[in-house]
Amino acid sequence: MEVAAVAVVGHHLCSGLVDVTDDLGALESTGFWAVAIDFHGKAVCARFDSVRPARPWKGRPWKGIPADTWTSSLDQTGFTAGVSAIREMIAAGEVYQVNLTRRLSAPLIDPDTDIAALGAALADGNPAPYAAVLRLPDHGVHIASASPERFLERTGRWVESSPIKGTAADPTGLTPKDQAENLMIVDLVRNDLGRVCDYGTVSVPALFSLEHHPGLVHLVSTVRGRLIRGYGWPELIDATFPPGSVTGAPKLAALDAIDALEPQPRGAYCGAVGWVDADRRRGDLNVAIRTLWIEDGHLHLGTGGGITYDSDLEDEWQETELKARRLLAVATGEYIAI
Questions:
Q1: What pLDDT is attached to residue 337?
Q2: Which of 46, 91, 336, 338 has the fewest CB atoms within 10 Å around its CB?
Q3: CATH number listed for the domain at residues 6-331
């Protein structure tokens, strides 16, 4: 079945694809762009000539992927071994925190599976403030994100990032370890933004805010700053990507640990998806967590969490299960709205 390019980003429905580029400098030109950047920095910027408010999905319904066909890149033993390895790195002074993730994958039964139908099912079963769908068939991009986390919002020269660190089924499950995680990443994001923002403008207007999302709660902080005059999206993303909340601190050392411990590349997961209105100098990109994508004939879903020295092996595994549970229910077609 042949399908057209489409994006649903920031409550905008985008159609009429004009062009596609990997040049982030295009976001400083004109027009409305849907943007996806995978965890490894590969960017896809798609400009559309029709942008209107998103409307309820009227295409084919999502059929679901059988629950017994899913596999994980790391089983519980492998994942908790990774947690132990990170704790040893922290004890040795190599890192302070590392985000460890695993990939869940299931083969597609129907070769015409439409990621936009899954995006509509997620909007019903797991609504999220930074949800996004990007379908670019000719470029191999099929992403449906139910992200609760803002990576970068830009209005003119002002930018904000709202890292999430700290997850539990309800507020009583949050611990001092969650606050410590959050504070380390706030410091990292302050440093990242400080590389491209005017001196003295980087601030933290919100620290440890509690947010409720389907099936869980998060601790969220906000970091704000004003871009140095003449800087735009290329400089901003170069300074801040990949997002600190899904890497760790220090970022470069955490990335080395991720490369060593995760058996599969993250792909679209933990990158960024969103929109840029170049004419109005505005944009909003999520952190592509709670995100599913199609690649190599499979549907994939990532799940993970931040590991500190105080991490408990069983608790960290259960957090990955908690984060994936609702999304898997939607993806398998087992979620029933109440």
A1: 52
A2: 338
A3: 3.60.120.10
